[in-house]
Design brief:
about 350 residues; alpha+beta; Deoxyribonuclease I, Chain A; six-stranded mixed beta sheet; 9 helices; about 40% helix
């Protein structure tokens, strides 16, 4: 090969590499604009449904910003990198709830609870029952309870969970049931917004201690109507928790279910503050509980157990795939020493 030919081939390779880099940067730039727009939307999460949606996708946005920041650094685009760092500072404070101290000043677990969104169309009843049994909880909230699953659980499962209150639903995703190893002192079906979306309020005694529980499932905020509906549901749920506290100040309250809201939304902190509840989780635990689409990265944290201050989480477990788009959440709750005495 002559020297001019070698030079020509080298120049062609350089041009192809330059074109590839330009295309990569163009794609990265489009990603930056998209991530920037979603970040700006998240600032309006309290009042606008798309803003709330962006806030609930905060984990995905942060991961996207980190990837684009790495590519931007490789391309030596320092001004764009500075913008990405500024966008990251918008999101990072909302993960402060992960940096929490797990108190050691608790007794052994006083109660174990499970919230299980089983998905109405899921017919894998044997796997659902096996997962519920493996949780070994004192009380289980089953969401999206169909009439066929209710009949299935009415057989051998209720040999262990003899006490229950349920309202199954086949046309929709808001059937609900509460299954307990301990007798209810009180249990009722109620609603916090819409009569077609039932919740359950109950009280019971476990190991000599009394607890009040609420099992609930909000409407997904996938449009303005759903956003407003879910927010009203949470507002009235917070009022119910305050009513229960006023009625029995020394009895802890546990709320469990699918809130269709992640801890990264400012509305979650607003609900915690208005209700006096705190999410029961362990430090640095952001395990997703919802996986709707196979290609959707990392899922969302939508299923929660929240408690009043007398109770603290000693263990939190997220279950496996049993045919639902959700994973079951099981929490062991201990009583802070000296804060609550057995009745």
């Amino acid at each position: 090969m002559t020297e001019p030919e070698a030079y020509k081939r080298c120049q062609q390779s350089t041009n192809r590499l330059s074109a590839a880099c330009n295309r990569l940067w163009l794609g990265n730039l489009l990603a930056i604009f998209g991530l920037g727009a979603a970040t700006l939307l998240s600032l309006f999460a309290r009042t606008f449904w798309l803003g709330d949606l962006a806030a609930n996708l905060r984990v995905q946005l942060v991961l996207g910003l980190i990837v684009t920041a790495v590519l931007t650094s490789a391309c030596r685009q320092w001004r764009w990198l500075l913008l990405l760092l500024l966008l990251l500072t918008v999101h990072l404070p909302f993960f402060g709830s992960l940096i929490q101290q797990t108190s050691t000043d608790t007794s052994e677990p006083a109660i174990t609870v499970t919230t299980a969104n089983v998905f109405t169309g899921n017919t894998n009843y044997a796997a659902v029952e096996a997962e519920l049994r493996s949780a070994d909880a004192d009380i289980i909230a089953v969401l999206e309870l169909s009439s066929d699953l209710r009949k299935h659980l009415a057989s051998t499962f209720q040999d262990d969970y003899r006490f229950s209150l349920a309202d199954s639903q086949d046309n929709g995703n808001f059937g609900i049931g509460l299954y307990s190893r301990h007798s209810f002192e009180f249990a009722k079906l109620t609603y916090f917004n819409d009569e077609s979306i039932q919740s359950i309020v109950a009280s019971l005694t476990v190991k000599g201690r009394r607890f009040q529980l609420v099992a609930t499932h909000t409407l997904p905020p996938m449009d303005e109507r759903g956003f407003n509906h879910r927010n009203r549901h949470l507002q009235r749920l917070a009022m119910e928790v305050q009513r229960l506290r006023k009625q029995a100040p020394d009895v802890p309250v546990i709320v469990m279910g699918d809130l269709n809201l992640t801890p990264w939304s400012p509305l979650f902190a607003g609900f915690e503050n208005s209700s006096g509840l705190r999410r029961a989780s362990q430090a640095f635990d952001a395990t997703p509980t919802w996986y709707r689409y196979p290609g959707f990265p990392f899922g969302l944290v939508l299923d929660h157990v929240l408690t009043t201050k007398e109770l603290q989480c000693s263990s939190c477990r997220v279950g496996s795939d049993v045919g639902s788009d959700h994973r079951f959440v099981t929490v062991d709750l201990g009583v802070a020493t000296g804060r609550l005495s057995p009745e």
